[in-house]
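Design a sequence for this backbone.
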């Protein structure tokens, strides 16, 4: 799980990466690739922890503000669902959602609107050891996240071109 470092002490399953504390088995390359996505950015990357409730490895991505309204419209496109399914390894569950929440909780905006893509492994970690299959799942899912990001960008470009054609075709 990637979180801003507030305290100098890290737990025994974390390490420092840039200004974040991350799970120690997450490779720098995966974190760099996830942070290089154009439409989405990672808010939670967790290797899964066999000894707690958070046993399922997962990646949670949010839409960048620049793309929020456009991606919100795009997620209603059934073609996007087909594309996402085709990108992901079979062992992965995905959820793409749009949420508008009104809150007065501290440290949140009054009206937060997010588009969230959650990718999680179907099976939990059962060992404290990080095995090759765990690393393989992360490699596949990071690659999938890159493909999904690219597909979304292409679909957004197509819809923009289509709107321009209609607008200028009068």
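Sequence:
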């Amino acid at each position: 799980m990637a979180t801003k470092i507030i305290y100098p002490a890290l737990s025994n399953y974390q390490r420092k990466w840039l200004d974040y504390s991350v799970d120690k088995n997450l490779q720098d390359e995966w974190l760099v690739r996830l942070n290089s996505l154009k439409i989405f950015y990672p808010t939670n990357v967790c290797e899964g922890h066999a000894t707690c409730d958070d046993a399922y490895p997962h990646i949670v991505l949010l839409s960048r503000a620049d793309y929020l309204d456009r991606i919100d419209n795009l997620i209603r496109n059934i073609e996007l669902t087909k594309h996402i399914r085709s990108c992901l390894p079979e062992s992965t569950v995905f959820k793409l959602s749009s949420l508008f929440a009104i809150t007065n909780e501290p440290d949140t905006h009054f009206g937060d609107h997010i588009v969230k893509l959650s990718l999680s492994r179907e099976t939990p970690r059962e060992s404290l050891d990080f095995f090759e299959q765990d690393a393989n799942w992360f490699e596949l899912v990071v690659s999938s996240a890159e493909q999904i990001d690219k597909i979304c960008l292409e679909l957004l470009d197509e819809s923009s071109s289509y709107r321009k054609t209609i607008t200028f075709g009068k």
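The helical segments are 28-35, 68-74, 78-87, 132-168.
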